[in-house]
Amino acid sequence: MSVRDTQTGVGLIEVMVALLLLTVAVLGYSALQVQAIKATNESFERTQSLVMMRNIAEKIHANPDSISIYETQINLSTNSTPNKKCGLDGQAVTTAAFCTPAELARAESFYIKTDLANYDFEVQMHPCPNTGGSGASAASNIMFSYCLISAWGLTTPTIGEDEDVDCLTNRVSENNVVTEAGGRYHPKSTCMMMEI
User: Fold this and answer.
1) Quick check: 173 and 36 in contact, CB under 8 A?
2) Burial class of residue 162 (count of CB atoms within 10 Å of its CB; 0-12, 13-18, 19+)
3) 158 and 147 in contact (C-beta within 8 Å)?
4) What's the DSSP call for residue 168?
5) I need a labelling partner for 40 at 20 to 30 A (CA). Which of 151, 176, 180, 195 fits?
6) What is the CA radius of gyration of the chain?
7) Are 129 and 182 in contact (CB under 8 A)?
């Protein structure tokens, strides 16, 4: 017999091995694509969140006397239309539309929450758990500051111990001694925090 007679074509086993290798390569590439898309979406959400939080922080910094009104209005679960729109609705500002700082804070908070609802983001404003001191308000704690928290997906913009829901961890103290500073992100959270 010659060499030509022993090899008449590609065997079924060789074809199956080639298909197996091709399948493994395609599945690996597909898994890589899924991870790349997930990372891109997360990056996009973080970028959008950061832009929105900076916008809110700039409004609060421009009207610091009404920071407690911003906190109250941003944390409301319902978004009620303010009595005065302060020219923020795109209409021409007349002398009747001039607003006090408190009215401006209510109007800006309303439009902030309306805009965020269009992007499926939730935002809340809470006292930061890691700012030191033992005071519960700006008047009793020189280190007091607010955290602006933005969350998406299954995470809520809250501070707590439920790692499946809350964004940040609580501050833990016993007898005015801080045992855990708090303010860390929970591992499963999809959120961002900005101290203002």
Assistant:
1) no
2) exposed
3) no
4) B
5) 195
6) 27
7) yes
Cα–Cα distance, 72 to 108 (Å, whole number) = 12
Question: What does the alpha-carbon distance between residue 145 and residue 167 come to, in Å, rounded to a whole number?
Answer: 17
- Under DSSP, the state recorded for 194 is E
For residue 86, the tally of other CB atoms under 10 A from its CB is 20
| Tokens matching residue 1 | 């017999």
The two three-digit tokens of residue 121, written as one number:
């983001």
Collapsed DSSP state (helix, strand, coil) of residue 191: strand
- At position 49, the amino acid (one-letter code) is S
| pLDDT tens, residue order, the chain (196 aa) | 555 556 666 688 888 888 999 999 898 888 889 889 988 888 888 888 888 889 999 999 999 899 989 999 999 887 777 777 776 665 655 555 578 899 889 888 888 888 887 888 889 998 887 665 554 555 555 567 888 999 988 899 998 889 899 998 887 777 766 677 778 899 989 999 998 8
How many angstroms separate the Cα of 46 from the Cα of each of 19, 37, 43, 122, 168? 41, 14, 5, 13, 16
Q: Which string of b and e fits 19-45 if b means at least 16 CB within 10 Å?
A: eeeeeeeeeeeeeeeeeeeeeeeeeeb
